[in-house]
Q: What sequence folds into this?
């Protein structure tokens, strides 16, 4: 359920900056109450502008999916949210049930990880694509025509026949196209893509990404791309947020992040992923295991796994602050922000 | 085998899949029973209540009485045919009533969660702990004999079986991403639950309902046997069994044996068919996933 708190300073209902389709600021999520309260997210700030692709990367359990779902008001049962989430100018945390449904119906769409699991197995593709439209008052005939058009746009062969088929008659890649067609049927301002290519093989992955980019440029949709694949994120995202233990630890442009990581965690992630380019380098795993926010150490959550950590890291949670990277290859990291006491040492 | 396109093959396999012999027999037997029940007035050679005391306890194969007569000289075949109506309709009523009640309660508990789930689940536990036959006897004691009382009482006592199953299936199914997918599309909880979640748990519900039908038939027969079901002149299989007790002692087992066999075969057929239907729907929906 959503927390419906009165605005203490009267600013929470203020309209969002018009050039953001998603504006999450200072989002905190806590489950349970009193002594048994477990924090899930803390001070998460994510912004997506129209037509922009923003990556949200991190290990499993870092809170990236939770953040994306919170943007739709889909917080876990019994969770309390603080901070502000505005989607296309609508304050999600204070919106009523009807407003929230209207928002989900018209302004935001979501693409999930496994296309096979994200379609009802007993309904035909045509039902899936037209149901939302018909619920919105579009006559059945027009909805079917629109569905046909959408299937053509996402490159399904024989769209007319596809409308009558069931999900199990399609391959994973084709199904993800169907899901994308459904997600774009309402021409949303924001598309939340929660690891949309993780369940697909690499060639299909490339096709689906290309399709998303094409449709994005056609409709000017803002995309929040949740993934654990840093290379993929760097390749397609304009900006990337790196999450660790329920917090944003770094924000940078895709290329900057890749070439000059400013947070030790980002750097460790990059060193832990294999690359087909350049010299052979040993893959270095990160010591320890990722911890949820509730179990993370005081101060910087990453300090128990960080090679650079010392006493200063335990003092307090490092704030996300502006940081400019200067290396041989990257001249500027304008707009980069990092939550580390000494990011200079992290950049290779 | 020749090369076939996977999508086409999946369709054809489903269509060509052989029906097991037992299922065919069960279906044929049930059809025959239903036909017998519907056409009872036309098929029965005698009135089910007509007594012929001079001809009582006639063995099967006697002239004019294919299955013999009971101790009151009533034609066993005629009573069997007429009794089929109530013996089938009453359990059907129980299955439908408990099915609807259990589904509504189970889905509500699963999807609403929290205190609603707690209240509904504990309520079902309480009913579950109370024996169905005892409840039915209580209802009969209060409202008098007749089929309506036991049907309602058994429906109530069967509801937790369906309700608990629907609840656990709905909770499990509710975690699947497509449910969230429809919520993300802006559909309300009720719409998603009824239109998308329910069809996916239907196979299990049908299989369970078939088992429930068999149970209800047995329980209702037991109630009739105890004299708490239908009123005496009217026939159902349970009451026929009950009234044949003395005849068995007199060396005429057929008047009890024949309705007993009818109950047995019907119960077995419903079980076989129910399991098959549940299984094949499950297969169809999970194919390829």
A:
């Amino acid at each position: 359920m959503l927390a419906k708190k009165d605005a203490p300073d009267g600013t929470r209902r203020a309209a969002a900056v018009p050039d953001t389709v998603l504006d999450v600021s200072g989002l905190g999520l806590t489950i349970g109450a009193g002594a048994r309260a477990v924090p899930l997210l803390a001070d998460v700030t994510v912004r997506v502008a129209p037509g922009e692709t923003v990556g949200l990367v991190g290990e499993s359990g870092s809170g990236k999916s939770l953040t994306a779902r919170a943007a739709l008001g889909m917080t876990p049962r019994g969770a309390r949210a603080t901070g502000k989430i505005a989607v296309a100018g609508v304050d999600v945390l204070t919106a009523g049930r009807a407003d929230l449904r209207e928002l989900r119906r018209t302004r935001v769409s979501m693409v999930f990880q496994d296309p096979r699991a994200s379609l009802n197995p007993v309904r035909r593709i045509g039902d899936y694509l037209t149901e939302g439209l018909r619920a919105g008052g579009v006559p059945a005939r027009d909805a079917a025509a629109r569905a046909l058009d959408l299937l053509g746009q996402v490159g399904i062969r024989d769209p007319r026949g596809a409308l009558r088929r069931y999900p199990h008659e399609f391959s994973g890649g084709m199904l993800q196209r169907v899901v994308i067609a459904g997600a774009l049927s309402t021409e949303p301002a924001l598309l939340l893509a929660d690891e949309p290519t993780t369940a697909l093989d690499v060639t299909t992955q490339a096709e689906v990404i290309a399709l998303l980019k094409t449709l994005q440029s056609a409709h000017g949709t803002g995309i929040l791309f949740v993934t654990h694949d840093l290379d993929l994120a760097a390749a397609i995202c304009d900006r990337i947020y790196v999450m660790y233990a329920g917090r944003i630890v770094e924000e940078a442009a895709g290329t900057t992040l890749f070439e000059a990581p400013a947070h030790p965690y980002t750097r460790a992630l990059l060193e832990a992923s294999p690359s087909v380019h350049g010299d052979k380098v040993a893959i270095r795993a990160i010591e320890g295991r990722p911890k949820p926010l509730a179990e993370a150490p005081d101060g910087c959550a990453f300090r128990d796994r960080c090679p650079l950590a010392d006493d200063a890291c335990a003092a307090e949670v490092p704030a996300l602050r502006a940081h400019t990277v200067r290396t041989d290859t990257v001249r500027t990291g304008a707009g980069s922000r990092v939550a580390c006491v000494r990011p200079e040492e992290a950049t290779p | 085998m020749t090369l076939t396109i996977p999508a086409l093959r999946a369709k054809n396999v489903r269509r060509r899949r052989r029906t097991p012999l037992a299922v065919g027999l069960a279906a044929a037997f049930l059809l025959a029973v239903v036909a017998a029940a519907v056409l009872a007035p036309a098929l029965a050679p005698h009135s089910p209540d007509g007594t012929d005391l001079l001809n009582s306890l006639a063995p099967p194969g006697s002239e004019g009485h294919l299955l013999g007569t009971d101790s009151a000289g009533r034609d066993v075949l005629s009573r069997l045919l007429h009794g089929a109506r109530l013996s089938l309709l009453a359990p059907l009523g129980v299955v439908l009533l408990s099915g609807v009640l259990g589904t509504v309660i189970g889905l509500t508990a699963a999807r609403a969660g929290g205190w609603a789930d707690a209240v509904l689940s504990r309520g079902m536990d309480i009913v579950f702990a109370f024996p169905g036959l005892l409840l039915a006897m209580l209802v009969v004691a209060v409202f008098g004999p007749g089929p309506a009382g036991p049907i309602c009482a058994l429906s109530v006592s069967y509801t937790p079986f369906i309700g608990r199953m629907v609840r656990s299936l709905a909770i499990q199914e509710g975690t699947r991403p497509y449910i969230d997918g429809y919520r993300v599309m802006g559909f309300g909880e009720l719409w998603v639950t009824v239109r998308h979640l329910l069809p996916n748990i239907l196979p299990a519900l049908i299989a369970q309902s078939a088992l429930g039908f068999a149970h209800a038939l047995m329980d209702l027969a037991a109630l009739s046997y105890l004299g708490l079901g239908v009123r005496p002149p009217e026939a159902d299989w349970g009451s026929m069994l009950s009234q044949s007790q003395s005849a068995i002692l007199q060396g005429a087992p057929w008047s009890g044996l024949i309705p007993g066999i009818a109950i047995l075969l019907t119960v077995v057929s419903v079980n076989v068919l129910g399991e098959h239907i549940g299984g094949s729907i499950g297969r169809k929906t999970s194919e390829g996933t």
Observations:
- Chain B has a mean pLDDT of 81.
